[in-house]
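Figure S4 source data
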Amino acid sequence: RQIPKENYERTLLNALAAGEGPDIFMIHNPWLPKQIGKIIPMPSTLFNAADLIQLFPTVVEQDFVGSDRRVYALPIYLDTLALFYNRELFDQAAIVRPPATWDEFQSLIPRLRSLNAANQIERAGAAIGGSIATIDNAVDVLTLLMLQNGTTMVNVDGAQATFADATGLAALNFYVQFGNAGSPYYTWNDRQTNHVDSFAAGKAAMMVDYQDTIAELKDKAPFLNFGVAPMLQVTGGGSAINQPNYWGLTVSKRSESPEEAWGFILHATTDEKTVRNSVVAFGRPPALRSQIEAAVADPNLSVFAAQALTARSWYQVDEEEIEEAFSDAITRVVTGQTPSERALREVEDFVSVLMRDAVVE
């Protein structure tokens, strides 16, 4: 039985609570803090954190190795955000190459957007500046901007959120300017259609999304002439930082054969031939380091595969709650209900409460 992605977590938790869950299930990369109590970690004699560090990109350690240094999940593929751009609209605007930095991206917005006499958007320069109501990955883009800006999202012991500082505020202000009708870079609002639909229809010249959106785009607009470029980085920011999105296989605490289950996962995620076959079958960028180099040579995977090595994550005690809080802050700032500094501070306070409550539980 296929479960819709949006219902997966609820369906899984209900099954586990009823004692009917599977031995092996999948968790999204930020879920470990929330779901760790339902997982039995990998036996250290079978595979440990040092092994994981050798075989997988750094972000997998960040996401799937617990504070006890035990391994709680392993991925088959690893997706990252990238820049999608409409080649025909770029040609019409005499733009010869996609932007590489956020500054370049910002400078292209006035050249690519189309506003009518009433300042209404006829074509967006990019799908950015809105909430998750119209941009599915809005919060991923915002928090990536924070990480690229050098924001420390939480303190070292994972007990308090710390992103409402000058760097976090600069990232929020940069993001919301694209949704502010009074900004020279205004290009989006939540009255637009979903960002993928807008891009597919030629109503947005750029968008930021994951590799798994390519198939959806080709289905919606088979003749759309679009390109994919590496994710935008901060000018002079030093090392690249990219946003991951992937799932890991893990073992239920209720499993009667946990070692056998983990043995299956280990084979599925670290055996090179098995992983290679999976990558070909599913058309996804691999997570296994030894397979990334080959994927970089694949034109359909190259951008995403290369970025896996510079993907970085941060501790989220409840991904869904945090996404809603950031999205609401974006809306309140863009609509003028709340100053950006106060909105960001309120999100930080909310996330800190979530983290304290999780410790109490």
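Figure S5 source data
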Amino acid sequence: SVLDGLLRAYGLSGREREIVRHAIRGETNREIAARLHLSPWTVQDHLKRAFEKTGVRSRGGLAALAVTEARR
């Protein structure tokens, strides 16, 4: 997918990409954790790394990045 390619280009790991996809869909850390059999803290750690790698500061920033890239 376009989103996966974008996230790969930013250097996100497979797990980080998976968590970002769920976060962009609006799932909470708790929901993502339950779905992926992780702790909510682990989900938050992955999101923090994704924010750092992409240069955004929030889930909304990740979603905006995805939309912006999809329009190119």
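The helical segments are 2-9, 14-24, 29-36, 40-54, 59-71. The longest helix spans residues 40-54.
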